[in-house]
Amino acid sequence: MNHSAYSLAAxxxxxxxxxxxxxxVLAEQDFQSSINPAAVRDMTSNALRFLGQSKVIIQKLSRxxxxxxxVEALLYIGISQIALGRPAYAIVNAIVDACEPLNRSWxxxxxxxxxxxxxxxxxxxxxxxxxxxxxxxxxxxxxxNLLKQDWPQDWLSILSANQTHPPMTLRTNxxxxxxxxxxxxxxxxxxxxxxxxxxxLILEKPQSVHNLPGFSEGLVSVQDSSAQWxxxxxxxxxxxxxxxxxxxxxxxxxxILELADVHLTGIDSDSNRLDMARSTLDRLGLKxxxxxxxxxxxxxxxxxxxxxxxxxxxxxxxxxxxxxHPDIKWNRRLEDLDSFSHAQAEIMxxxxxxxxxxxxxxYATCSVFKQENxxxxxxxxxxxxxxxxxxxxxxxxxxxxxxxxxxxxxxYYALFERNAGLH
Length: 423
Fold this sequence. Notes:
Layout: H1 3-17, H2 22-28, H3 37-49, H4 51-61, H5 69-83, H6 88-98, H7 107-120, H8 122-130, H9 133-137, H10 141-150, H11 155-162, E1 169-172, H12 179-188, E2 193-195, E3 201-203, E4 220-222, H13 229-233, E5 241-245, H14 251-259, E6 263-268, H15 271-284, E7 289-292, E8 307-313, H16 327-331, H17 336-352, E9 355-365, H18 374-383, E10 387-390, E11 401-402, E12 411-418
Helix pairs in contact: 1-3, 1-5, 1-6, 3-5, 4-5, 5-6, 5-7, 6-7, 10-11
């Protein structure tokens, strides 16, 4: 592999650890024709996925901590690649070569010495990792402790799932093709899948969307099986007036429109993400009324006509999808949860005013932290006596909180009905 790929991956890692999102950083990179973007993404994601163990190893072997962010990033990449069983000495050489453009006279010698020390002491260092929670679980300590508190029986399985590659899951557009028909198309294309809940299709091996038959024609979308519950739980009927608050990038809006002939309004405060939602709907041949607005400021966007159904897929810590976005766990702080939960409560209070009597509001997060989920539900019920929490008929009460596993991401749902005469 061209050592420039390692340089680009190191740049992405260092920029991400400075607070930028990995998705944004990778989208901005200029890939030369000789560099495989998928390889850069893979190296970057693995470096962040296993950052804890790399930090422990570097701290054990080096006295020159935090000398240079790009050099440190190259070490994170090198250690994670070696730990994954990639050709060790080829990786060491590539990392050393990638130091050349940095103009750090010490960097080549430093990275070469440290990585070769790691190779010589790998067995001993693996034991050091096991005995260190940061290294063993590859999550910040506060995150580990909070999962232990919230999920005393499940915290270990959550952390383990977060260190794996996520499944690639599909949702067929039932307006254009049946599930069985699309499975036949995949079989003919040599793409192996298995069925999961809600007729989600999990690919045996992730593919570029360009390799999926009918993707550009709108036959299918990529959407995790946990996220596919949202449209099903809304109890949709033809003719309903639906609001998808915080709708971008449009996957759930599209699913709603695939399932029922409804009048859908989608709102998001981010213009770029709203453009993504518009593109998604266009590809699938679907139409919605999209508005750029802050959903909390209802006077700026609401026409006063109540909605029959509201999906409140609120901003959250995204702690349920960190294997897809491993930068999240390193850039989040414990105090961020207070900020998210405050915004979630404000959004719910605003949206509740827009819901028809007898209407239903589905609260959703891609979080596994109870502060954003069960606690938020309890607070909402306390503050709104006209709200009734409904059973999720398609999910057990236990499964309101979906935890990450081999088939799905972490997600939370709570369905509220607005009752008359209880204001």
